[in-house]
From TrEMBL:
This is TRIM2_3. Keywords: Coiled coil, Metal-binding, Zinc, Zinc-finger. CDD domains: RING-HC_PML_C-V. It comes from the Eukaryota. Residues 16-59 form the RING-type domain. One of its GO terms (molecular function) is zinc ion binding. Gene3D superfamilies: Classic Zinc Finger, Zinc/RING finger domain, C3HC4 (zinc finger). InterPro entries: TRIM45/56/19-like, Znf_B-box, Znf_C3HC4_RING-type, Znf_RING, Znf_RING/FYVE/PHD, Znf_RING_CS. Residues 226-253 form a coiled coil. Pfam families: zf-C3HC4. Residues 102-136 form the B box-type domain. Signal peptide: none annotated.
Length: 635
């Protein structure tokens, strides 16, 4: 009963309301509630607002005696609760006769001593004698238990951060290996498909050779057929014997009329059977059969039998060529020799270059192209630096047809089955313009939008997808230092030709952290639209770059990592084209039959970022916010 009373007093009146442990260095608040000094310091540090904090028991506000006082100094300034200390000492029933706590840690080096020190250099619990004798080096940092709480929390926090970093590193390793494994699976499947196709070719070739061989054998059999010759000869002989028997029979007859009748038919019978003998084509000369094979074909077959079909190469996914290759497979170093011609990216042929630079005019600003569309036999480009829409001929370099000025102009796209185009203007007052291209460029309509629209792409059903970037006014001059939690947004809207928003794809799934990491301030870089209404958008994060496919319901259908910085993206003739900044190539992905790379294009004389990519009419062009636009012809 006495022990229970003591425990109740200790738990109800002598325990800290924050840590729930017996009071350590108890400090008495003005509201007569007592806290551990360390718990009080942490409470002040975490909940201090306008130099006030609230008691955790009755929520009474306590004001600081000085605005410059630290949390630790403020906590130590409260009076010590001496009564609590006396009561704790009085009811310490768990103390042994030797004066050592039952929960005390005995020193392994000095069993008679209780450990009351911790060395933060060696991370060991020690006694005072150990601290004096064995932990005096510069790397050691020994502190008494009552002074360890703050530093221990700091060290535990550091250990926790290190563990989190290691977990993240492990997850990154797994994520990268999963990506590699997916690429390997695709490569294996491509090789399997190629081998199956090769087997089909060999099978068809074997059937063709067998058929032609049977044709040769049939011809050999048909040259001389003794049984057929014998059968035909016997038929002629039987017919001649019949005529002979008739003549012999008529010789003994007395009727002259009957004899003359038979005699009149004899020449015809003799001639008929003579012709039949001649038709057999029998010669007195001996004959033989010879086969003359195609020597070129035979030599080619002999050569192919000794040649390898191909070789397997383990290469990096972003390499354009392969040579003799070494790789580690199942912890074994394997060398693959090249016995087929090296495969390389196809080099596209440059067709046209538009370079609108200042020509002797000091005040003219160099062009900065941010958008382009092919319209009829003309190229309509957006010069963002000079706020102009410019139209060029698509066959003559730098031959401008006409232009017009629009403040803040940025993106452009064609209108469905119409000579007009839509132009975005995310300037001081964001607007959407509809321009006529008939005869000369002119404004048909102008719509003020409440969002700043940049890139624009045409969707089916007379709708358009636009990329919207926005940021708080305070972020204007320090954009690079802001993150999403401070109000920066980047999202996609679906609008009609009049600028009315039909659907809104918020940044909640487009721009928040994904499996590839946190996004940049403006992560949506370029986009294109598929015939089924899906939107392909290139996204860049702090650690990776990828493309995603979003359907009309706002769901991400798939995400594809190309192991490079994905810039401009375009769709044409069942394929997705992506410009890769580091490799300086255009990767082509097939949409039908599963998303997989089909080819790679090099763009000669192109060294830009490729932030926008347009593919149509067997032409490919890249716009990268410079004063030059190059057009290439797809082979």
């Amino acid at each position: 009963m006495q022990r229970r009373l003591v425990d109740n007093i200790a738990s109800d009146h002598l325990s800290c309301p924050i840590c729930k442990d017996p009071l350590q260095d108890p400090k008495l608040l003005p509201c007569d509630h007592t806290l551990c000094c360390e718990c009080l310091t942490q409470l002040i540090h975490s909940s201090r607002r306008y130099n006030k904090f609230s008691c955790p028991v009755d929520r009474r506000e306590i004001t600081t005696p000085s605005y410059n006082i630290s949390a630790e100094e403020w906590a130590n300034s409260f009076p010590t609760d001496d009564l609590a200390i006396v009561l704790l000492q009085a009811i310490a029933g768990d103390v042994t006769t030797q004066g050592k706590s039952k929960n005390a840690i005995l020193c392994t080096e000095h069993p008679q001593n209780v450990c009351d020190f911790f060395c933060f250099g060696c991370y060991q619990i020690i006694c005072s004698e150990c601290a004096v004798e064995n932990h005096r080096s510069t790397e050691c940092n020994c502190k008494k238990f009552k002074n360890c709480a703050h530093l221990a929390r700091e060290k535990l926090g550091d250990a926790s951060d290190e563990i989190v970093n290691l977990i993240s590193q492990g997850q990154d390793i797994v994520t990268k290996e999963i990506g590699k494994d997916q690429l390997l699976l695709q490569s294996r499947q491509q090789i399997k498909n190629t081998v199956l196709r090769l087997k089909s070719i060999v099978y068809n070739f074997e059937k063709m050779v067998n058929r032609k061989s049977l044709d040769i054998l049939n011809k050999v059999e048909s040259v001389v057929n003794v049984e057929e010759l014998q059968k035909k000869t016997e038929e002629i002989v039987i017919d001649l014997k019949r005529v002979r028997d008739e003549i012999e029979n008529l010789k003994s007859q007395t009727s002259t009329k009957d004899m003359l009748t038979v005699l009149s038919n004899v020449p015809e019978n003799l001639q008929k059977n003579t012709d039949r003998f001649n038709s057999l084509g029998v010669s007195d000369d001996p004959i033989e059969i010879k086969l003359e094979l195609n020597e070129t074909f035979l030599n080619l077959c002999d050569k192919l039998l000794d040649q390898p079909i191909g070789s397997v190469h383990v290469v990096r996914a972003d390499k354009l060529y392969f040579e003799d290759t070494e790789a580690t497979v199942c912890n074994q170093r394997i060398k693959f020799s090249s016995d087929v011609l090296p495969s390389c990216a196809l080099e596209l042929e440059p067709v046209l270059q538009i370079k609108d630079e200042p020509s002797g005019q000091e005040n003219k600003i160099a062009a900065r192209f941010t958008g382009l569309t092919l319209h009829g036999h003309a190229i309509i480009a957006i010069d963002n630096a000079n706020f102009k829409v410019k139209r060029f001929r698509d066959t003559i370099t730098d031959n401008i047809i006409d232009d017009m000025s629009i403040p803040g102009v940025y993106g452009i796209t064609n209108i469905h089955e119409n000579d007009d185009v839509l132009v975005t203007s995310p300037g001081t007052q964001s607007r959407l313009f509809r321009l006529s291209t008939y005869e000369s460029l002119s404004i048909i309509s102008e719509t003020v939008t409440d969002k700043a629209y940049y890139d624009i792409a045409r969707l089916p059903d007379f709708a358009y997808a636009v990329i919207c970037h926005s940021r708080p006014r305070s972020a204007f001059k320090k954009r690079a230092n802001f993150d999403w939690s401070r109000g920066v947004t980047s999202h996609i809207d679906i609008i009609n030709v009049d600028g009315n928003v039909l659907k809104h794809f918020s940044e909640s799934f487009l721009c928040e952290p994904t499996e590839f990491g946190d996004p940049f301030i403006m992560p949506l870089k370029s986009m294109c639209c598929l015939p089924n209404g899906a939107i392909i958008v290139s996204i860049e994060t702090k650690t990776n770059s990828f493309i995603s496919c979003i359907n009309q319901n706002g769901r991400v259908k798939w995400t594809y990592n190309l192991n490079d910085i994905s810039e401009g993206v375009s769709f044409y003739d069942g394929k997705i084209y992506v410009f890769l900044r580091e490799s300086q190539v255009v990767r082509v992905l097939s949409v039908e039959g599963g998303l997989k790379p089909t080819s790679t294009f090099k763009l000669p004389h192109y060294i830009g970022d490729g932030s926008s990519l347009i593919v149509c009419r067997n032409l490919l062009t890249v716009i990268d916010k410079t004063c030059s636009i190059k057009l290439y012809k797809l082979q």
